[in-house]
Design a protein that fits this description.
Structural class: mainly alpha
Subcellular location: Membrane
Strand content: under 5%
Low-confidence stretches: 5-11
Pfam families: Wzy_C
Strand order of the largest sheet: 1-2
GO cellular component, one term: membrane
Radius of gyration: 22 Å
Number of helices: 17
Keywords: Ligase, Membrane, Plasmid, Transmembrane, Transmembrane helix
Helix content: over 70%
Mean pLDDT: 89
Number of strands: 4
Membrane topology: Multi-pass membrane protein
Order of helices and strands: EEHHHHHHHEEHHHHHHHHHH
Shape: globular
Length: 409
């Protein structure tokens, strides 16, 4: 890991030095955050900045990829799926783009410190939130804010992410006071936008994410005996809660549906899941090919678009990461995805518990959020995706953090 920015004193003057690695990694992350505005240009900027970052000290880039070779198994599998895909050109193209995305993410994680990574996310998401207030749109029928994202759910997801990032910056005791105060204002802006976006599901993600960070902060300050008692108590409480949910599932389900305004099919999600399971049974191990289902002209996809009124015939999925991806890359591909996603969760959790660092807690919480969302959406494992990059970076940071035994700065 290299330092990407620093301040050095030369005589009486202070000289700020900024590494090209820092600038290129920043440009790549900013491009993904502003994809809703930049669209194809955002993906192009990400590729350009990421490729330049990899080319700079290309030997180190190769070493970084070899060091974390297991993260390349998933995109390589997706790329190879063109051999059995219904649409081989489609699977080859998107598989190659996913491979490039993962490689760039690995190199970013090896060039940026995790603390700097979190601060860049805070800055760029903060700019996106301010832009959503100043230049964003509002739905005429419901009054829900769309921001610069063109969708209330997308704005709500970004606002929820920003709140969690801001909370981590506030709880970072090593950060300057002024910066932490700025994070407080940022968190308030995120809360306002989250409320204006009117997305109940996004609101539900924020409290547990904040509680995890606060819980880790308290854990860091406990003695060994206090930690044992606390962990034991939380484990028993979790078991009790699981028993209560299991014994009162029907009543809780009815309450949840009434609160969220959903019907018993979760607005058609269960119907989609039944369709997905049928296709999985047809080709269980390898699937139909990476991103080879939702293709124009593919009869089942066209039928589902028509049934659910998706006139644009894009931006639709099976609303479950595991089922949706099992349709495309089978059980084997989903196994690789589970390894990456849940491996990142375990590694960042161990890193957070052993290192007592705010950036480690942030990485763990970000992965937990994606895991929660993965059961009702498809937020990761496609090309030029910020969340996919976050998961890959979290995995790398977790591995390196555990290896360093919390000595990372």
């Amino acid at each position: 890991m290299s330092d990407v920015a620093g301040i050095s004193a030369v005589g009486p003057r202070r000289v700020v030095t900024v590494s090209p690695d820092f600038l290129l990694a920043s440009a790549a992350l900013a491009a993904l955050i502003f994809v809703p505005v930049l669209r194809a240009h955002g993906a192009l900027l990400f590729l350009a900045a990421g490729t330049a970052l990899c080319a700079r000290y290309w030997q180190r880039s190769i070493v970084s990829c070899l060091r974390h070779w297991y993260l390349l198994l998933l995109p390589c599998f997706c790329l190879l799926s063109f051999a059995w895909s219904q649409y081989p050109a489609q699977s080859f193209r998107y598989g190659l783009q996913l491979l490039a995305t993962v490689i760039i993410a690995v190199v970013i994680a090896m060039r940026l410190s995790p603390k700097m990574f979190g601060r860049l996310l805070f800055v760029f998401f903060g700019i996106a939130m301010i832009a959503s207030i100043l230049f964003g749109e509002v739905r005429g029928d419901t009054g829900a804010w769309l921001g610069i994202y063109g969708s209330k759910n997308a704005l709500a997801g970004a606002a929820a992410t920003f709140i969690v990032i801001a909370a981590s910056q506030i709880l970072d005791g090593s950060a300057p006071y002024g910066y932490r105060l700025l994070a407080v204002f940022g968190g308030l802006i995120g809360c306002v936008l989250l409320l204006l976006a009117q997305s109940v599901s996004a609101m539900a993600v924020v409290p547990p994410a904040i509680l995890i960070q606060l819980g880790l902060l308290l854990y860091y300050r406990m003695s060994s005996a206090e930690r044992f008692v606390s962990v034991s108590g939380l484990t028993l409480l979790g078991l009790l809660l699981a028993i209560l949910i299991a014994t009162n599932f029907s009543a809780l389900e009815a309450l949840m549906l009434e609160t969220t305004g959903k019907d018993a099919t979760l607005t058609g999600r269960t119907d989609l899941w039944d369709v997905a399971l049928r296709f999985i049974r047809e080709r269980p191990f390898l699937g139909m090919g990476y991103q080879a289902f939702w293709v124009h002209g593919h009869a089942p996809a066209e039928a589902l678009w028509a049934y659910f009124g998706i006139d644009g015939r894009s931006g639709f999925n099976f609303h479950n990461t595991y089922l949706s991806n099992a349709v495309e890359i089978g059980i084997l591909g989903v196994g690789l995805q589970i390894f990456v996603l849940y491996g990142a969760a375990i590694l960042t959790c161990v890193w957070a518990v052993t290192s007592h660092r705010a950036e480690a807690a942030l990485m763990f919480v970000m992965v937990v959020i994606v895991i929660i969302i993965s059961f009702v959406e498809v937020p990761i494992f496609f090309q030029f995706s910020l969340r996919s990059v976050l998961i890959i970076c979290a995995f790398v940071y977790g591995v390196e953090g555990v290896r360093a035994n919390g000595r990372w700065r």
